[in-house]
Every structure is written in structure tokens, then in C-alpha cells.
Amino acid sequence: MGKIKYPLGILITMIIGALLNMYLCCGCWDDDASSDTAVSKVVDESVTNETIALRSPDLILNDYSGNSIVLNNDNFNFLNSNYHYMQPLAGSVPASLGTIKSYLEDNADSKLNIKGLYMEEEVNNSAFTNLGEARANDVKNYLLSMGYDSARMGISGELVNNLTVKDSLLLGPVDYSLSKLPTGDAAEARERELDSLATYLRANPLILKFATGASTINLNATQREKVSKMVRYMDARPSSELLSVGHTDNTGSRATNIKISADRAAFAKSYLVENGIAGSRIESLGKGPDEPIASNDTEEGKATNRRVVVTLK
């Protein structure tokens, strides 16, 4: 009987060892599901990483059927947190833009939409609601220099965080698309909207406050929205103009204040020009202390009177 115990013990040991090997190495038995889950997680993460692709920086414009009008590997580039495109442009960019201009000339019912893109981490130092819109406006101004019609272009901005960046240079953060110009009742409705916008802008001008000796302008969100609306209106109605009027409190002589107010109005004009509004479409003048909107008997009232008012003429 004792002779049988040892082979039987060896056999039992071998069986237990085999079962443990299956459990630890193959992930069998009840832990199969958790093992599959682990494998699945690895696969899912791999797929997710593969699908987070950088947006194409190319200059692309398709017609309404999806056919390519322009497909160019080069585009407008911008430095991080900057709204002026980098110069010089690649030689192929003006040629592509010339092709788009020819298309618009041959298709009088079409409008070019320019969408500037920006990333969340960037700082908006422009006068526009966002950095993307400011970039689109800068591109639009280049197209105007090529003879494009501002009434047949529209600008917008969009937050996109998967832009292609190389050494703080954003490659091609501008998209292009076409839309149909409104006709008939839609065109009339559009004109009424523009009339309403003009009424609003005249009733709610852009007011810039100036501390004594101030040399910078920092706009809040509401002021930026007004600038965007002004630009939108001026693009749609190319004959429209802005008026920048400077005002002061009553401290000092009237002659001195007239000069100070004119300088402030000119400074506000230069700020708008820097942000892409044509200087030829902005008139500036100073009225000194002649039109106060608050009492000059208090410091608060004086601060209110030190202002520049920008509105449609």
C-alpha cells in the first residue's frame, strides 16, 4: 500500500501544477472575462490614439458638388497667439487664391467663407471676438488687395485644438468654403438685417475709456462683439465708414483738451487699423471738453468724460 502512495502523490502534484499553469498563463476559468476586457482596453486605446489625427493645414476649396477648385499643400500660417499671417507667403498661395477669384467671377451667385481657427491655449489680443475671426479678417484683407469683393466674403472663427503646430508656428489654421448669395425675398431680408444692424451700432457705439496718459486699449467681450459687428456691416456695405471722436474732461485749457481728444481719436483709429479695418474708412476728430456726458465736478464724472466714441457715420 505504501508503494502506491508515492506515484499517486506525484500524479496529483502534476495535475495541480498543470491547472495552476493554465490559470496563470492562459487566463482561463472565471477570469477569462477580465482578461478579455484588459485586451479590449488595449485595443480601444490604440484605436483612439490612431483617430486623434491632426487637422490638415492645406488650402482646400471644393465646389458645391465636392469637386476640387483648389488643393494646395501651402496655406496662410500664423504664430501662436498672433492674428497677422506670416510673410512671405509660399509662392503657390497667391496662384491658388487667383484660381478662387476666377471661380467667383465666373459664378456671380457664390460667396467665399473664410474661417480662421485657433487653439484654447492661445491668447486673444485682437479686437475681435476670438483669434480665429481676427485671422480670417487678416486673410480677407489680403484677398481685398487682390481685387476680391468684400460683399462676397464672410469671416468667422472656430476653436480647434488639433491644429498642426511647428516651433510655435500654426500651419494653415484657415478653412475655406462656398455658399450661395441670397436672392429674392432672402436678399431683401438680408438688407433689412443690415439696416437693423446699422441702427443698433449707431445707438450703441463702441466707447473706449482713457485714463490720463493711457497708451493701450484692452477690449472686453462686449466691445469685441461690437467691433465684429462693425466689420461685418462694413464688409457687406463697402461704402460705409466709421467715425472716431475723442472727448476729454474739463481739466486744463480747451485748446490743450482739443488736441488730447484728437490724439485719442487717432490712437483708437490706429488700433482699429492694426486690427484690419482700412484707415481710409475711418475718420477721426477731437471735441475736447465740449460734449460731456457726466459732471466734471467729480473724479468719476471726469473719468466718464475721457472717452473715444466709435460709430458708423
Label the structural class: alpha+beta
CATH class of the largest domain: Alpha Beta
CATH-assigned homologous superfamily of the largest domain: OmpA-like domain
The coarse silhouette is globular
Indicate the percent of residues in helices: 40-55%
CATH topology label of the largest domain: 60s Ribosomal Protein L30, Chain: A
Q: Note the gap between the termini.
A: 117 Å
Number of helices: 8
Rg is 32 Å
Which sequence of strands runs across the widest sheet? 9-12-10-11
Please count the beta strands (DSSP E, at least 2 residues each).
Answer: 12
Mean pLDDT, rounded to whole units? 86
Q: Which stretches are poorly predicted, pLDDT < 50 over at least 5 residues?
A: 1-6, 20-51
Number of domains: 2
Labels describing this entry:
2 domains; three-stranded antiparallel β-sheet; 313 residues; alpha+beta; 60s Ribosomal Protein L30, Chain: A
Q: What does the model show?
A:
The chain contains eight helices and twelve strands. It is an alpha+beta fold and 313 residues long. The chain has a four-stranded mixed beta sheet. The protein has a three-stranded antiparallel beta sheet with strand order 3-7-6, with no helix packed on it. The chain starts with a helix and ends with a strand. Mean pLDDT is 86; it is low at 1-6 and 20-51.
